[in-house]
Every structure is written in structure tokens, then in C-alpha cells.
Amino acid sequence: MPAHFIHETDFREFLKSLIASKPVIGPVVEPKSTGDKFIFDDVTSAEQLRLDYDVSLVPPKAVFFPPVQKLLEFGPNGVKSCINPREQVLLGVHFYDVKAFDQLDKLFNDKFPDNNYLANRRATTVIASSVQTVSKHAFWGSFGKDVKAKGHDGFLTKVQGGYVYETFSQKGEALLKHGKFGNASTDQVSAAKRENDAAMDKCQEKVTFTPAEISTKTRASFSNNEMWKELSKDCFSCGSCNIVCPTCYCFDVQDKWGLDQVSGERYRTWDACLTEDFAKVSLGGAGGHENFREAGAQRFRHRAMRKLTYLNEKLGGPACIGCGRCTSACVPNIANPVKIINRIMKG
Amino acid sequence: MSPKTKAKVAFFDFTSCEGCQIELTNLGEKAFMGLLDHIEIVEFREAMSEKAQGRIDISFIEGSFSREADRKRLEDIRSRSNVVIAFGACAATGGVTALKNHMSDYSEAVYGKDAKMPHLDSSFALPVSAAIKVDYSVLGCPMSQAEFVEIVSSLLHGKEPVIPNHPVCVECKKKSTLCRYGQGDHCLGMVARAGCGAPCPADGIPCEACRGFVDHPNQEALVKVLREKGGLSEERAFNKSRIFTANLRSDAVKGAGARKE
Ligand code: SF4
Ligand code: SF4
Ligand code: SF4
Ligand code: SF4
Ligand code: SF4
Predict the structure, then answer these.
(1) Of B30, B218, B229, which is closest to A235 when you measure between CB atoms?
(2) Topology (CATH) of B7-156
(3) Residue A267's closest CA among A68, A26, A124?
(4) Partner of A98 for a Cys bridge, out of A149, A251, A321, B10, CB 3.0 to 4.6 A?
(5) C-alpha–C-alpha distance, residues A284 and A316, integer Å
(6) Which part of chain B has CATH 3.40.50.700?
(7) ipTM at complex level
(8) Is pTM beyond 0.90 here?
């Protein structure tokens, strides 16, 4: 992989040129917060970009798979697809979120390619960046650490005096023309490696079991009803742990009529398997319905199964990438996967 | 209802502030006029004076059922209507009017020496469904404009309206809104029925569950969280959800639930 280097003093000019060339999305301060909460949003000036962010509230998957996405418009003249990707750069994604992209790429390409996702994904240049601030609930340093991030076009690592920029694709290379990049020296490349390796030890939360051990034990715990009840006692079935998760990919599709009542749109929106009606299905023309995960404890268990075992084989590792967003999002403090894992392993 | 003939729509009010009917007039000219191509309003006190006679396709009922004397009028509306829709929180759940249900001294507090006047006499404030069969509800205090349009559109197309049964947190989190609990505040969003788009937390104030509870709210965990994380006293944590959901709580007065067929 070619490695380049740009001086700290030239970095702002690079960003300015990049922002002037096409839309750039990156981590910025959530405007209502006291400067300590971050979101991915369009970056309009180099100063706004906060590569020292800890974690974003909603994961950057929203760039390809928005919380609400119009799929098509319908009317008296037929149906029109709404696939309309924007050529853009997504800059400053942490490696754990890149791992989540890689999973979504696989899932949205599984059997039936989902072009509403894939078109946005292809039109976006993804540039990852090193973790400068570790968020309080992160545990990516231990859990699933052997699964490598892939699918990004470049990786920026902040080192002494500037940034090492590794490129993995033509799209990543194409950014070089916006700044005064030179070849990175061997020292700079090893400094970048040290930087990224060191971050792995900085997570406050740690998982001490291997993903394989956890997977086996989680599956074996399926019928431990008492444990799932105990774990989910305070659960509100509020779905927050799903909504903020970078690897959750479920959605609900609905049609909405326009006021003229002859045209309308079909959209999809993020769904959440913790919510009560998620597994409610129609019994067909005769009417009635069936909910195959009626109890809160069953839904709580389902998320654990999905994140810790069901998808491991298909994805090449656990579906949880250890970002800790669900831990922060859960009002009654019960969604933390580290706590859930420890309880499962205790038996 | 065929899209060719306009659906006859009427509005009626019971124990309420009539804020929901006002909210309808706030729908905006474009939206309202668009709908008027498909519906004909035959009774609407906030904007017209004639009284509906004969069959009505869709009746919207605002306000709670709080006087036995109102039962007959409700039954009459039901018998003349193809579809009955509870219009706003008071009609759908009792809303704020149900706050009186756990108290006995409110008349004196509100009306002073006039408290004993016969027209002020009322019993428990109950949802309209305690008196007659209700087909759908437009939730919210005031009622949600978007849900009103969704329900009317769905009926015009013979489709079931989509009313979420998940908490407000889902919509709040989708918008990257800062959670009240992380801001030294409290919130009822975890038990409140979504569908409003979570405007209150987005404005920096707690959700008060004006759209009522989801089907199965975890009320024990709510009191616990309000106390431990929201910093509310034991008593306040317990009473907190009464404001809009008195009739949905596990300690609701008898008869507050939907009328059994
Ligand atoms: S389960 Fe929680 S920690 Fe794991 S990826 Fe999802 S949000 Fe992050
Ligand atoms: S675990 Fe927490 S965040 Fe997830 S649904 Fe239950 S209460 Fe909500
Ligand atoms: S729901 Fe609210 S706005 Fe509507 S009538 Fe009742 S109190 Fe008034
Ligand atoms: S602010 Fe309220 S509605 Fe929003 S996530 Fe927090 S508890 Fe839920
Ligand atoms: S956020 Fe809560 S209080 Fe506000 S409109 Fe929605 S349900 Fe009502």
C-alpha cells in the first residue's frame, strides 16, 4: 500500500481544496451539545472537521443507508426510482465503523443486491482516520480485534508533525492532488503503525473471552430463560440499542400517499428488533397476526444472538464491532455488550 | 369509499379544550385544500355553523367521555357514522382531562364557590372508547397533523393506517437528538408511543408521552429510571406519567380501558 505524508501546516489547505471540489462529510460537533457530542454531517469549512472526535451519535452508515430513505415515487404516470447517488467523500471514519461498512456491504449484496444502498456506497470515497480520542464505552480494542477493517479507500493517521495517508484504491489516490503530499518515510509509516496499535490498548472496557468462546456459549444459552429475563428486566423495548448500532441493517418499508391522493412515495426507515411489533407478521388474507418474539426477554436475547453468534460465519467475525454506542444510548443501562457477554459466560 | 365521491366528514367535541380542532385549522391551506378535493366537511364547529344530518362517513370526536349524560350523544354519532375516530389525546385516552381521576378536590380548587353548580358535575374522564366503539385514534395533544392526514388518506384508499407501537426513542435517536438523560434531565420517551417525530427532545424538553403509552410500557422500570437517572423524588417519579396517560397506567380507574364488545 502506498503511504504518503502531509505536514500539519499543509493539512488545512488540503481540506479546503477537497471541500471545494466535492461534498465532504465528516465528524462535526453536534450543535446543541457542549462540544462533546459528534455527528457526521456535511463539512463546509476545514475548521469544522473534528478528527479528534470520540464517536458519533448515529453511525456513519447513515450516509449510505439513511434513517429514512425514499425508494420510489408513484403516481398516475407510473413509478420512478429514487436512486440518485451523490459523488462525495466521507472523511474521518474510525476503523471500527469501517468494519461495520464491510459487514453492510456483504449483507446488502447477499443474494439480492440492494441498489438503494450500493449506489450510495459506490459513489462515496471513504477515508478512515486514526482514533485520537477513545470513547468511554468502546471495547473494540479487545473484542473482534483480529478482524481487519477493509473496504475503505484511504486511511489517515495523525503522527508527530502531520498525517500519514495510506491509499487502498484509485478513489483514495485521487485525493492526493488536493494537497502537498510526499512519500511517507519508513519512520513515518512505523510511527503511524505504533499510533494505531497503541489506540487498541486505550479502551476502558474489555472483553476477556475470544469471539469463538462467546459465540458457542451464547448459542448454548438460548434456553436459559431465567438469565434473559434477568438481563432484560428493565428493558423498555425502546430499540435505541438497534438504532445507534453501526451493524444493524433492518428496515421497514411503507407507502405514503400525497395530499392529492393519486401520487405518493415508498420509503424505508430503520427498524429495531427490540421493539414490540418487529416480529409481528400477518397471517394472510384471513386476517389476524402472529408475533414470534412477543416477550421483551425474547427480543433482548435476539439482539445478543445476532451480535454475538448468528452472523459470525457469514461475516467472518462477530456482528458487534465494539463501538459502545448501545451502551451510551440505553437509558436503563442494560444494553452494554460487555456486561451481557460477561453474564452469558458466567452461565 | 370510492375516490370519486367525496367522503362526508364531521367533527364533534366533548370534554376538551378544542385545541385539536384548532390544530386542524393550522394544517395549512395547501394541505387542507388538497384534502378537501376528497372529503366534504359536514360539521365543524371551529369553522362553520351547520349541523350534520343523516349518514356520516367519518366522524372525528374530540374530548373525553366524562359525563353519563354524554353517552346518548356519542351513541347517536356512532349509529350515524361508518367510521369513528378519536381525535386527539383527550378522546383517545382521556389525555390531560384524566388527571382528575385520582383526585377529589379539584372542583373547589378550580371553581371555588361555584364548584357545586350542576353543569360542572362530572365523573371520571374516560376515553371515548369507554362509551362507544372507536375505529382509529389520531394521537397527540394537540392531535398530530401528520397522523390525521395518514389516517384520512388510508381510509380513502381502503388501507390500514400505520400507527407505530414503538417508543419515541426510536424517532429521537434517528435524528441524533441528545438524550435528555445525558443532559441532567428526565424523559418519558421510552414508554411513549412514537409517530410525532420526537419534536420535544429535539427542542431540548422532555417527552411527556402526550401520544399515550406503547402497548406494553415497562412502568416499573420507568419509575426506577426517573428516580435513579432522572433525579426525581420517589413520589414525583411515581406520579410523573399521569399527565397524559392516567388512564393507561396500571393504576387507572375502572372502566378507563376500551369498551368490550
Ligand atoms: S452492539 Fe453496541 S457496541 Fe456492538 S456494534 Fe452495535 S452499538 Fe456498537
Ligand atoms: S436494551 Fe436498552 S436501549 Fe435496548 S431496547 Fe432495552 S432499554 Fe432500549
Ligand atoms: S388533546 Fe390536548 S389539544 Fe386536544 S382537546 Fe385535549 S387538551 Fe385540547
Ligand atoms: S430524549 Fe427521551 S425520547 Fe429521546 S432517546 Fe432520550 S429518553 Fe428517548
Ligand atoms: S415527543 Fe412526546 S410529548 Fe412531544 S409530541 Fe411526541 S409524544 Fe408528545
Answers:
(1) B218
(2) Rossmann fold (3.40.50)
(3) A68
(4) A149
(5) 37
(6) 7-156
(7) 0.95
(8) yes
